[in-house]
Design a protein that fits this description.
Helix content: 40-55%
Strand order of the largest sheet: 3-2-1-4-5-6-7
Number of helices: 16
Structural class: alpha/beta
Distance between the termini: 25 Å
CATH architecture of the largest domain: 3-Layer(aba) Sandwich
Strand content: 15-25%
CATH superfamily of the largest domain: Glycogen Phosphorylase B
Radius of gyration: 22 Å
Shape: globular
Number of domains: 2
Order of helices and strands: HEHEHEHEHEHEHEHEHEHEHEHEHEHHH
CATH class of the largest domain: Alpha Beta
Amino acid sequence: MVRFDCALMIEKRCRILSKEEVLIVIGNLDRGGAEVHLSHVMPELVKEGFNIKIFLLNSLGTLAPLVSAKGVTLIKPWAQGPCDPKAMRLLKLLWNSLHLFFYLLFRRPAIVHFFLPRNYLIGGLLSVLAATRVRLMSRRSMNYYLNKFPPVVRRFEYWLHTKMHGILGNSRKVIAQLQEEEGVPAQKTQLIYNGITLHRTRTVDVRADLAIPQESVLLVMVANLIPYKGHADLIAALAGMKLDQRWDLLLVGNDTSALQADLQEQAAAGQIVDRVHFLGSREDVADILSACDIGLLTSHEEGFSNAVLEGMGSGLAMVVTDVGGNAEAVLHEQTGLVVSPHAPDEIRDAVARLIADEGVRQSYGLAAQKRFEENFRLEACVQAYADFYSGLLKGTA
């Protein structure tokens, strides 16, 4: 009798999940932190029986075919191609926003979940006007981006918070800022850490590819070349480092801000240009990490970095700045070293210490890998989303 009742409950839950639509709203599925996160999590939720759809407000993006092939339905925007001049871009945005409004109004998804600020500002308002049943927003960084806009934008976003049924954060610092600075009630917030799976496809001989000596200690930082990622701080730190031990730095990431030339000039001025290797965007990041010794992230702001988790999962001792959730992932003096942002001297001391002490480096790396396995695997993240969505869907069914 108990088994029969359990079977009925499971069957009912599956019917609810397969019928009720969870609509994710994001600009595109190009390769970025939030987009990669969605490309990993949402296909797994489809396997769990959820009816997941992703509405793309701007364009498809490079990850779109992969996500679609894994069973996630993509709602393509009415207007997709690049638009110039500025007036045409505005017209495209208005047209696609109208598409989203009609979708919300007539398709009536059970849950609408917004990712990234612009999509939240636009889609959040449209979801209020369409009177959607459950509205969610995910904040994946600190709110410093609001400083770039007039105060009215901040006031509008804070007002939107009051219309959401839930606001998710990916670190305790993000959650604290939402509650303490933006006035979001604690019962409305939910912490879900990022989770990843490392995909290794081959053994990379980075030293041979780049003519790096075998005895060199390989440092690696995975981050697009954007000023707030702190590449200039890192190069300044390394330029002043005096060590007998050979080291080389691998920088993996797109030159999205046309920053590489300036960084190369800075490295040349610091007489380390032959030690700094720009690898650009790579599909084999996990393979590269497995060939390295020390992982770095010297950013000025973060939410909760997948790059840090990738480094930990690859068994690297980490040096990270104390921003966002970095210090929640990397435990100081246990799995790596946590330093202040905007502080090349602290970065230099931390990196030099790990280069000079192979025993500490290996000890931190093993502890980092263990912490990753216990806390930050994709399965745990997917389960957290599944539990959260299931609770909301059962409450509205």
